[in-house]
Amino acid sequence: MSSNIKRAVSLYSYQEEYFLRKMSLEECIAAAAATGATGIEIVGEQSVLGCPKTPSEAFIEQWFGWMDKYKVTPVAHDMFLDYNKKKGHYWTDEEAVESFKKDIRFARSLGFKIIRVIVNTTPQIIEKVLPFAEENDIKLGIEVHAPWNINSAWMERHWEVMERTGTKHFGFIPDMGGFTRRLPRVQIERMIRNGADPEIAKYVCEQHEKGVMAEYTIYEVSKMSNRRIDMVVAEMSRHNTFVNPLSLVPHMDKIIHIHGKCLEMLEDYTEYSIPYKEVINVLKKYGYNGYIATEYEGNRHIQDVYEVDSVEQVRRHQEMLKNYINS
Amino acid sequence: MGPLDKYILKEDALEATENGFQLKFQSHWYRSLPLSCMDFNLKINGQEIEKSKFKIKANGNEYTYKQLPELDKEWLYILDRGMLEVTQPMEKGKEYEVEFKYDLHIPYILVGPQATPLLASSVVTKNLVCQ
């Protein structure tokens, strides 16, 4: 089965440098393009002032100018549903749908063809917004994010909507964080710097790597320590899951995009926690067609002791993707 | 703890004004949020400032602390700084110990049986020279 895997970068990856104004939006796009990636993904409310309002004509013109200049394509916008912006007021489905439509208009105005739908969005809301997405030719992809996996009951409910409606505008966006075989070292080390017991952290890492169910590890740690921080370390095993990459196979035709999560790219172009080669081999063998977008997220765990270099982390991740896609 | 919590207060964050002082802060979250999702506590030299004294400024607009929970349409962009203005005298050029607790109630991450927004809270303690 032939696959066509393309490479993108989520500008979320450069959040540290962008936040500190070391890099402008244009410089983030340029850095992504310099890796050889051809697609751009954004978190709208991070990259574009005023999102999800439709940007001004001047911004739109500038945006497409950058796309041409750096020879990249807008691929995905990440949307969120702010259910509880006011204390005591929880959005109705209608309010959520209206917010969703704003994101669709926003995405369309900047040329994005895919919206990454935040994982807690209900299938009912997606079904209500689908006709509008179809009219605007925007594909919606439910984020398959740990602790859920593509075969979880929650995802099955979304799958039912895909099947029942037969739509071409709704699918899955797996996050590579769902294949975390080893707990992220940068995260564990940060927890130890924050006061977690190193021996407990070591135990949790070993249990996770052995594939022991997180709930058992959490229970064992609760007997070892009554400190909250040690429990947080144990709970990392619940929030950084590993499932067999073959779990993607039955859903391959419904995967519209992939988030290439990475927390620590090593000098040898591997990710410390995630066995990318295994996952990409499955994607290639079973015919995935779409982008993998680098999503570097390690900054938050190292910024207390190291200078963050997101550009280098993204570059290594893109090199790794290129190597595995082409091998 | 937020993903960018190290950078909430810059060295020039504390500034004397005609009526007192203002503290300039930047969000520690990766995505812009409205003011209604925020809360603040401030101590100067160990002394807690009464919240009713806060004036909150963002995007050229000014609000009382009491108005904060209603401000769901006033977003603070992640690259912009908001300001807390307090009518309490402060001496230009003098160093103060500032303890700023910045709570963000993340409106799209709902946790627990009551589905309440995740609390991302950061406390910054810094000695800052009043500008």
Automatic annotation (TrEMBL), chain A:
Residues 29-323 form the Xylose isomerase-like TIM barrel domain. Gene3D superfamilies: Divalent-metal-dependent TIM barrel enzymes (3.20.20.150). SUPFAM superfamilies: Xylose isomerase-like. Pfam families: AP_endonuc_2. This is Xylose isomerase-like TIM barrel domain-containing protein. The lineage of its organism: Bacteria, Pseudomonadati, Bacteroidota, Cytophagia, Cytophagales.
UniProtKB/TrEMBL annotation, chain B:
This is C-deglycosylation enzyme beta subunit. Residues 5-108 form the C-glycoside deglycosidase beta subunit domain. Pfam families: CGDB. InterPro entries: CGDB. Keywords: Carbohydrate metabolism, Lyase. Belongs to the C-glycoside deglycosidase beta subunit family.
